[in-house]
Design brief:
The complex is a heterodimer of chains A (459) and B (347).
Chain A: H1 2-17, H2 23-38, E1 51-52, E2 57-58, H3 62-80, H4 89-110, H5 115-124, H6 126-136, H7 141-171, H8 176-182, H9 190-206, H10 215-222, H11 225-246, H12 254-277, H13 282-303, H14 306-337, H15 348-351, H16 353-366, H17 373-388, H18 392-415, H19 431-449
Antiparallel strand pairs in A: 1-2
Helix pairs in contact in A: 1-2, 1-4, 2-3, 3-4, 3-11, 3-14, 4-5, 4-6, 4-11, 5-7, 6-7, 7-9, 7-10, 9-11, 10-11, 10-13, 11-13, 11-14, 12-13, 12-18, 13-14, 13-17, 13-18, 14-16, 14-17, 14-19, 16-18, 16-19, 17-18
Chain B: H1 3-22, H2 26-44, H3 50-81, H4 92-106, H5 114-121, H6 124-144, H7 151-168, H8 175-193, H9 198-221, H10 227-230, H11 233-236, H12 238-252, H13 260-272, H14 277-302, H15 309-312, H16 326-334
Classes of the chains: A mainly alpha (459), B mainly alpha (347).
Catalytic activity (chain A): a ubiquinone + NADH + 5 H(+)(in) = a ubiquinol + NAD(+) + 4 H(+)(out)
Main location (chain A): mitochondrion
EC number (chain A): 7.1.1.2
Chain lengths: 459, 347
């Protein structure tokens, strides 16, 4: 694992010592090279053996997420070039260093083999994200957004620390590889219920669960583009990944403790999808769509069947790429008209046809069109929740319809129809933006050809 | 103050604390406390204004009362055990009295009322000495009598201190008061763990002293005592602004900075002793602390505070204020987390 971590650390001296006109090129190129190294971990032999060192390991669950994280860094750098072009050099380098630091913590989080190490890095990812949102966001609401983001996550995760230390005393070790063999079923008692809650709430807040999702629209909307991308694509998946790891310790309590969260997620996904239909703010629409997709992942993880785990993993990767792409598209709008309101820039298809193609593909993947991996994820989740309880198919069906509705609403409002007359002066699409969209879309489409690698450890 | 006098006074302060730490005779400990207190009064009064005199008087009164209480505890212990050696205190009354006296010296709740007011009335340098050096002596005595301290009393004091330190600092804009409430909260964390694992208390004290020293030195570089003056720092010392950001997050106890080490270790020790709710409560209340540190970083590093245009164009001189040992202090206050496994040498 050090072959990814040390180059990522070395990216920081690279930014600070590059020539001023080369900082973006250098970091993007070397970031892409590092992402190529992480692809090696996707080659997992089918018998669930784990690549292991003393402190880091990777298995079929963390390898796709690792690849997603390392793939995203060059994309974030490419997306940030425009809005940072007017800043002084030191601030550009600081911004890039924050992104690289965040990347480093994320890589270490996904490959941590011990749960307390995972916890420390889970919290450590908050600091660069907070700095990126609060320092480089664009509106005054970003202060509130940073506070909500930090404190919601910390409130959830401090009980997790206590719970992990308690489990450490109880079981002797928290190394994930060893714990699998020492698990005893957790008897039903009040204190074990609180233990379950303490373990899960941190990840519920991070996912986010419907009742605790208030930080997400604020943080996603106020963050600069790189912040939004990494938040939507990777940081939410930290919650899903953590939940999948820690539910192995918490059987069989999950069978009945999951009910309230299932209710909240099932209802919440419909609620947040419906809110998307009434949004005027483009980024806010994408943020609520993230909540809706992540609610599906929560449902899948809480059901704990093999198909649902496969669906959850596939959905996490698919949603990461799709949501990041949608934020990039929204940002390309924002950079031209400096407003997030959807109706201000309509009919873009006549002006920027290639960008309209990317909008179309992104919206289609967002609504889970076959044969994309979004569909595979959603379909597996819908099928496994149907087997858990037949009635959920109604809710899932309504959700799929509403998702299609708002994705098409977003597409039609921004791309189709008569253009608003003041957008004739916008700049045409940069090659950088088209490259960005391609780099998001290409993995998404190629994975449809071989989804086996993202289906997780149960496959 | 003339240098020879300053040297003598500083030497007396240090000798006082040394005597407290090194003695095994209770009378000498009391003498050490008194030496320390009397010598620090002129340091607190360095600026000769009524506010400083009020602060020194309050400090003197509380510390003198605490010393007297300590002496009473010592005498009761003498009556019941017949000797003056510092060891396990068998009489519970004497133990409670000594604990109360020492917590009064430290500024733990409910004896915390003097800390913000005294810290506010004195200069930044004196405040630094007050909040760091003066904690060493009482803590060392608490360490030595730790087997006989009443756990319930100290745990109650610790919990209320963390709450008071968190809530009290919320409405402050004066930096010295913020540091005072931060000191109350950190002392609360230390007091919680003394009866279970005194070594963690020493760890927390060391890291707290390092972080507080760094913070005060950064404040002194700019001679800023209010949030407003701190917010003008982005123009003069942009690097120091980033340092303040990291240091405040470390004081708040965020991983992966070294402020997280004592919290992690203390929660670990408490859970090993079957206390689950108390560390959870303390950890969540520490978030209040984090809130006002974060507010400081918002006004300093992360936003541009509203200021006049004159403030935005300052001459950028090289700074000549001596910041002794500032780089190593900052490094140890923020990057010590990977060295946590070294704590195993204590086994």
């Amino acid at each position: 694992m050090l072959k990814i971590i040390i180059p990522t650390i070395m990216l920081i001296p690279l930014t600070w010592m590059s020539k001023p006109n080369m900082i973006w090129i250098n970091t993007t190129t070397y970031g892409l090279l590092i992402s190529l190294i992480s692809l090696f971990y996707l080659n997992q032999p089918n018998d669930n053996t784990l690549n292991s060192s003393l402190m880091f390991f990777s298995d079929s669950l963390s390898a796709p997420l690792l690849a997603l994280t390392t793939w995203l860094l060059p994309l974030m750098l490419m997306a940030s070039q425009h809005h940072l072009s007017k800043e002084p050099l030191t601030r550009k380098k600081l911004y890039i260093s924050m992104l690289i630091l965040l990347q480093l913590f994320l890589i270490m989080t996904f490959t941590a083999s011990e749960l307390i190490f995972f916890y420390i890095l889970f919290e450590a990812t908050l600091i660069p994200t907070l700095i990126i949102i609060t320092r480089w966001g664009n509106q005054t609401e970003r202060l509130n957004a940073g506070l909500y983001f930090l404190f919601y996550t910390l409130m959830g995760s401090l009980p997790l620390l206590v719970a992990l230390l308690y489990i450490h005393n109880f079981m002797g070790s928290l190394n994930f590889l060893m714990i699998q063999y020492w698990i005893q079923p957790l008897p039903n008692s009040w204190s074990n219920i609180f233990l379950w809650l303490a373990c899960m709430m941190a990840f519920m807040v991070k996912m986010p669960l419907y009742g605790l999702h208030l930080w997400l629209p604020k943080a996603h909307v106020e963050a600069p583009i790189a912040g939004s991308m990494v938040l939507a694509a990777v940081l939410l998946k930290l919650g899903g990944y953590g939940m999948m790891r820690i539910t192995t310790l918490l059987n069989p309590l999950t069978n009945f403790m999951a009910y309230p969260f299932m209710m909240l997620s099932l209802w919440g996904m419909i609620m947040t999808s419906s809110i998307c239909l009434r949004q005027t703010d483009l980024k806010s629409l994408i943020a609520y769509s993230s909540v809706s997709h992540m609610a599906l992942v929560i449902v899948a993880v809480l059901i704990q069947t093999p198909w649902s785990y496969m669906g959850a993993t596939a959905l996490m990767i698919a949603h990461g790429l799709t949501s990041s792409m949608l934020f990039c598209l929204a940002n390309s709008n924002y950079e031209r008209i400096h407003s997030r309101t959807m109706v201000l820039a309509r009919g873009l298809q006549t002006l920027l046809p290639l960008m309209a193609a990317w909008w179309l593909l992104a919206s289609l993947t967002n609504l889970a069109l076959p044969p994309t991996i979004n569909l595979i994820g959603e379909l597996f989740v819908v099928m496994s929740s149907f087997s858990w309880s037949n009635t959920t198919i109604i809710l899932m069906g309504i959700n799929i319809i509403i998702t299609a509705l708002y994705s098409l609403y977003m597409l039609i409002t921004t791309q189709r129809g008569k253009y608003s007359h003041h957008i004739k002066n916008i700049k045409p699409s940069f090659t950088r933006e088209n490259a960005l969209m391609t780099l998001h879309l290409l993995p998404l489409l190629l994975l449809s050809l071989n989804p086996k690698i993202i289906l997780g450890p149960i496959y | 103050m003339k240098p020879p006098i300053l040297i003598i006074i500083m030497a007396t302060i240090m000798t006082g604390t040394m005597i407290v730490m090194l003695s095994s005779h209770w009378l000498l400990i009391w003498i050490g406390f008194e030496m320390n207190m009397l010598a620090i009064i002129p340091i607190l009064m360095k600026k000769y204004n009524p506010r400083a005199m009020e602060a020194s008087t309050k400090y003197f009164l509380t510390q003198a009362t605490a010393s007297m209480l300590l002496m009473m505890g010592v005498t009761i212990n003498l009556l019941y055990s017949g000797q003056w050696v510092v060891s396990k205190i068998s009489n519970p009354i004497a133990s409670i009295m000594m604990t109360t006296a020492l917590t009064m010296k430290l500024g733990l709740s409910p004896f915390h009322f003097w800390v913000p007011e005294v810290t506010q009335g004195i200069t930044l340098m004196s405040g630094m000495i007050l909040l760091t050096w003066q904690k060493i002596a009482p803590m060392s005595i608490l360490y030595q009598i730790s087997p006989s301290i009443n756990t319930n009393l100290l745990m109650l004091m610790a919990l209320t201190s963390v709450l008071v330190g968190g809530w009290g600092g919320l409405n402050q804009t004066q930096l010295r008061k913020i540091m005072a409430y931060s000191s109350i909260a950190h002392m609360g964390w230390m007091a919680a763990i003394i009866t279970y694992n005194p070594t963690m208390m020493v760890l927390n004290l060391t890291l707290y002293i390092l972080m507080t020293l760094s913070t005060f030195m950064l404040f002194m570089l700019n001679s800023s005592t209010t949030t407003l003056s701190l917010s003008h720092m982005w123009n003069k010392f942009p690097l120091i602004t980033s340092m303040i950001l990291i240091l405040m997050l470390s004081l708040g106890g965020l991983p992966p900075l070294s402020g997280f080490i004592p919290k992690w270790m203390i929660i670990q020790e408490l859970t090993k002793n079957n206390m689950i709710i108390i560390p959870t409560l303390m950890a969540i209340t520490a978030l209040l602390n984090l809130y006002f540190y974060l507010r400081l970083t918002y006004s300093t590093a992360l936003t541009m505070f509203p200021s006049t245009n004159n403030m935005k164009m300052k001459w950028q001189f090289e700074y000549t204020k001596k910041a002794t040992l500032l780089p190593p202090l900052i490094i140890t206050s923020t990057m010590l987390l990977p060295l946590t496994p070294m704590l195993s040498v204590l086994d």
